[in-house]
Amino acid sequence: MVAKMDANFDWHQGSDADSLADNLAGELVVKLSEAIARNGIAVMALSGGSTPKPLFKALADHDVDWSKVVITLVDERWVPETHELSNAAFMHRYLLDALPDSVRFVPLYQPAQSVVASYSAVLGNYCVATSSSMDAPRPFDIVILGMGGDGHTASFFPDADNVAELVDPASSSLLLTCESPTTQVPRITWSLPALLNTQFLALHFTGAEKRRVFEQACAGTDATELPIRSAIFQQQIPLQVYYAD
Ligand SMILES: O=C1O[C@H](COP(=O)(O)O)[C@@H](O)[C@H](O)[C@H]1O
Q: Ligand 1, closest atom to CA 47?
């Protein structure tokens, strides 16, 4: 008999989206400083979409040694930065452009390559930025996930052909591709094992509609149906849920 795994999360409720973002940004600054003190470097994977806008703005106001911070994306749409769907462009607009030039950013989109062919280039850039080797890339210190109304997180979409692989905690890949009827363009995403290999894992979302999706996710266990379950039902690292109505 397979034992039923419990949901593994702590709930942090904000009074509104802005104060939630301020609280989470304050926590991230502590985690960044701890990682820098421990390793001389802090590595943070952040989500795109629209929810993180106030978080990015709040984060940029903090005094951190940004020259010791490496930032990458949890996932990306396979489009250049000039495209309106680019998560990298979103991150530049609301975070990177407000930080000192010394901060290191590892984008996931590689011009002039197919998404699958880009894995080793992305990983290579990540390893150079984090002073680690391709055999043992440095784990993340911080991962901030988002969630869509369909229960997707990262680019783990429920209607993707490869959804079982996307939510597989034993996947041997660090990067994966996602194509589905709802994604508009192909996507690249860090895999579930890569994202769970972190010191701090948070899920940041707002609004009653998404809260219902989260509650529905907690009530079942099939992660191919609601991929956010892959972050809720795992025993590697407690998920810190940051929510406001
Ligand atoms: O497509 C994406 O959507 C999710 C959630 O986005 P939001 O606009 O509803 O906040 C995001 O977490 C993911 O990184 C992004 O690529």
A: 14
